[in-house]
Structure formats: C-alpha cells, structure tokens
Amino acid sequence: MAEEAHVIPARHALSFALVLSGASALVAPAAAQHYEEAMIPSRRSVESPEGFALELRGGPYAPSSDAVAEVYPDDSGPLLAVELDVMFLRIPYVGRAGIGSGIGWARLSDTSLDEAGMRTDEEIDLTLIPIPLVAVLRVDVLARELDIPLLLAGKIGLDMLLWDEDVGERQGGSGVAFGLRWGAEIALELDFFDRAAARSLDEEWGINHTYILFEYFGSTASDGVEGGTLELGDQTWAIGLGFLF
To answer: Of 2, 136, 166, 190, which sees the most CB atoms within 10 A?
Structure first.
C-alpha cells in the first residue's frame, strides 16, 4: 500500500507536466505574436531624419509700381514658385531654423500704350523671376508636443528679382531688382487625417510630413532705371503644398 501511494502522486506529476508543456506550446507562439504586434507601432513611430522643407505654391502678384499698374491694370500673374529650405538647427520646444531659397515665375500681359496713353494693337509682356534668399524659422511645437496639426513659419532676407519686358517683337527693357523679402506662413499638417498613410510615406519615400500652406509675404525689390526707380515688389499671398523630409 505504501508503494501504491507513492506511485499515484508520480503519475499525477507526470500528467501535470504534460499539460504544462502542451499549454506552453500553445501560449508561446501567441505571446510572441502579441509581442511582435506590440513592437510594430513603436518601430513605425520612429521617423526618418528631418532636415529639409520643399514648398510648391501659387498666388497673385502685381508689382506696386504705378508705371507697371498703368500698363498692366487688370493682370496679376499668377506667380508660381518653388522653395527649398535647409533646416540645420533644432530649437527645443520651438521648432527648426535654417535658410531657404527658391525661384518663381510670373508674366503680366496687355496691349501697349502709345505716347498719348492710348492702347494699341501691339502686345506687351512683363516677365518676373524672383529668387529669394531668406532665414527661416519653422515652429512645429503645436504639432509635435500638443498634437495640434498646425505649423507656423517666419521668413526674412533678400529678394533678387529678374525682369524682362517685350513689346511686340522688340526688347522693351530688362534688369535685376533687389530688396527685402519677408513672409509669414500658417500650415495645416495632413498627417492628422491619416496617420497610417503618413507613416507609409515616411517609410517608402522619407517624407516625414505633408501640409497645406497659406503664406502672406512681401517684397521691396526695385531697380533703378532711366527716369527713376521701377518698383517691382508686392505684398500678396500664396497657397500651396509642402513636404518635410
């Protein structure tokens, strides 16, 4: 009887061990899968390095010069432009700072004026190519720290504006205007609407964020010409699409 009492607990121990091993075989893969799934968001939350901003924009542009307004009273571009910013400084709890430059294009057209100020049948065109060089501060603390999808930016620097005027088949005049360039921008970050698509865009193309922008900017670019100064700057606005990468 003593031997039989000793065997029964051993059998129970063996059965218990078999149950444990079977449970482990079932639970271990599930636990591993749960661990991997838990790790995926943390991996995706790590963004690629960010140091550049690319913006494509367009809006009206009409030089402030009275002479230009007299010849082109009903034309205001539009001005189409692209800008690339290099953001090399990170300011904690504020945003990124750097420098930016770009190029734009606009053309104003009308019929020319004769000496009496009357319209003729001859076409006259004014082509404008602004090339700004600005210091840029991009404030992203609202989006990064408070989960509010708004970006702000301030820009100030030099504006170089190439201009060329054609009267019919003749060259009417050309030159280079210089002045102060400034801008204030507000943007809506699109990650807020589809974060999964934003992560995929970063993983596949290295684009951290995309945004729709509105910028109000001004230029004091002017060129000294015969008989005075030709004011080619303007205070105007533009809308566009931006990428941070």
So the answer is: 136
